[in-house]
Every structure is written in structure tokens, then in C-alpha cells.
UniProtKB/TrEMBL annotation:
Keyword line: Flavoprotein, FMN, Prenyltransferase, Transferase
EC assignment: 2.5.1.129
Name assigned to this protein: Flavin prenyltransferase UbiX
Keyword Transferase assigned: yes
Gene for this chain: ubiX
Gene3D superfamilies linked to this entry: Flavin prenyltransferase-like (3.40.50.1950)
Organism: Paenibacillus aceti
Length: 208
């Protein structure tokens, strides 16, 4: 299918910030609800995946199939240096892009228009085509340059959703906290999900 009849699709980036589990959960959730996911992982992102999740990243194509195959949607992996990939062009239609987690280095590259790899280029495409771009920064503490770059992008319409999980819904596991943050990202893009109990629903259930 071509043009505006294309299967719903989203670009997802995973960088070298701590929290690769967030990006993995996001990709799986989008695939499960029927999105095709164009996945880009930075070199540092692969290293963090190996260290935090214990995955064998030597055979990346095989790993992508093992971890993200068999869902309703398809996962299309693009190497970080493939600057000629489909998602590097504004003529290729996707609904938006999410970078989760987003390192300060990637955030800086986007804020300053340094499209020297596919991840930064795809983000630049989202901005120039006025498509949704969501960044999930994961760093602490934040210094003035970090904050200035976030403010610069926010003023351009980029959505900032820092990796700040909530506790009002009574999480009992790390998975609950991860699902909450992924759900907040999907909420921001108006994508339906059932990843966490909402505040109003939480109160109603408590009163039953």
C-alpha cells in the first residue's frame, strides 16, 4: 500500500541512555496493537541493551526477530548509519516518532539540527513535516545545557515526557512502572491502551 492508505506506522528510537527496557516495552506494545514499527537503535543503545537486559547483540537481525517478531504489526529495523532509509525522507509517511529513552547527546543533536545519523535525521524529518515527535529524556541531574536544549525543542512543538514514573496507581513491580511511562507516551499521541489504571478509575475502584 502507498500514500495515505499505508498501514499505520511509528518510528521508535532507542539510545544509550539508561532505561532500554522502556523502549523495548514501547515497541512491543505498538506491535501488539497493530502498528508497524521502524526501529532505530544507536550504537550506545545497543551497548546499554546488552548491559541492562543481558541480550546477545552480536546478531542484531536475529535478535530483532526473536524479540519483536510474531506480533500483529511488523518491526522494521534500520541501522543507525543508513541515512538513505525510508524514514530519512519526509515523503515516507509515518504517524510520528518516539525516542525512548533519549540520551542528552541525541537530544542535543536534534536541538541543533545535526542530522549526521538516521536517528537524528528521522527526528529532523518529523519536525520539518510537522509530525508528532516525542522525546523521553533519561538523565539526572540536569545541567543548564540539557534544560536549554529541552526548552528549545519544546518551543518547536516537540513533546517532552521525562522518565518520571508515578506511584498513585499502586505499582507493585518494575514492569508496572515501565508500563505507566509507556502509557503516558501513548496517551500523548492519542493511542488507546490499557497499560495502567487511570486516576479517576483508581478512585472508582477503591470505592467499590
Amino acid at each position: 500500500m502507498t500514500g495515505y492508505n499505508r498501514q499505520k506506522a511509528m518510528v521508535v528510537g532507542i539510545t544509550g541512555a539508561s532505561g532500554s527496557i522502556y523502549g523495548v516495552k514501547l515497541v512491543r506494545t505498538l506491535l501488539e496493537i497493530g502498528y508497524d514499527v521502524h526501529l532505530v537503535i544507536s550504537n550506545a543503545g545497543w551497548r546499554v541493551i546488552k548491559e541492562e537486559l543481558g541480550w546477545n547483540v552480536a546478531d542484531r537481525a536475529r535478535l530483532i526477530e526473536e524479540q519483536f517478531g510474531g506480533y500483529t504489526g511488523a518491526c522494521i529495523y534500520h541501522p543507525i548509519n543508513d541515512i538513505g532509509a525510508s524514514i530519512a525522507s519526509g515523503s515516507y509517511l509515518v504517524e510520528g516518532m518516539i525516542i525512548m529513552p533519549c540520551s542528552m547527546g541525541t537530544l542535543s543533536a536534534i536541538a541543533n539540527g545535526a542530522s549526521d545519523n538516521l536517528l537524528a535525521r528521522a527526528a529532523d524529518v518529523m519536525m520539518k513535516e510537522a509530525r508528532p515527535l516525542v522525546l523521553v529524556p533519561r538523565e539526572t541531574p540536569l545541567h543548564a545545557i540539557h534544560l536549554e536544549n529541552m526548552l528549545k525543542l519544546a518551543r518547536l512543538g516537540v513533546r517532552m515526557i521525562p522518565a518520571m514514573p508515578a506511584f498513585y496507581f499502586g505499582p507493585t513491580s518494575i514492569d508496572d512502572l515501565v508500563a505507566f511511562l509507556v502509557g503516558k507516551v501513548l496517551d500523548n499521541l492519542r493511542i488507546e491502551h490499557a497499560l495502567f489504571t487511570r486516576w479517576g478509575d483508581h478512585n472508582e475502584q477503591a470505592g467499590e
